[in-house]
Amino acid sequence: RVTSIADRLNVEFALIHKERKKANEVDRMVLVGDVTDRVAILVDDMADTCGTICHAADKLMSAGATKVYAILTHGIFSGPALSRINNASFEAVVVTNTIPQEEKMKHCPKIQFIDISMILAEAIRRTHNGESVSYLFSHVPL
């Protein structure tokens, strides 16, 4: 997934390999690649308590990244998540609006959201009409 995104954006990439002992607990995290003097963007499907992404942000900063952003599909943000984000080295944590974020944004100014309602509506319309949903991967409606 990382290689595909980096190729489409024509940028280099690094990745963080994580090993879990159990849910919501990272046992080990290893950075593969060079982030020295670069802006790092963490991409993940969801963040719940945000321990993992905050740990990853710290690892990136200590490896020489100049700034760290996170881009997440689903921002659950339960328990200590907001305080962790507020205390982490993120410039911003960007999430989609699959979950309402207005209340959480009041307590955590680093959270920003992207409205994906139009693409979800188009995916539903295409599914209903038997049209290709994968077409949306290369043709995003505005």
From TrEMBL:
Domain of life: Eukaryota
Keywords on record: ATP-binding, Kinase, Magnesium, Metal-binding, Nucleotide biosynthesis, Nucleotide-binding, Transferase
Catalytic activity entry: D-ribose 5-phosphate + ATP = 5-phospho-alpha-D-ribose 1-diphosphate + AMP + H(+)
Listed InterPro entries: PRTase-like, PRTase_dom, Rib-P_diPkinase
Enzyme Commission code(s) on record: 2.7.6.1
UniProt cross-references to Pfam families, sorted A to Z: Pribosyl_synth (PF14572)
GO MF, one example: magnesium ion binding
Family note: Belongs to the ribose-phosphate pyrophosphokinase family.
Protein name: ribose-phosphate diphosphokinase
Source organism phylogeny: Eukaryota, Metazoa, Chordata, Craniata, Vertebrata
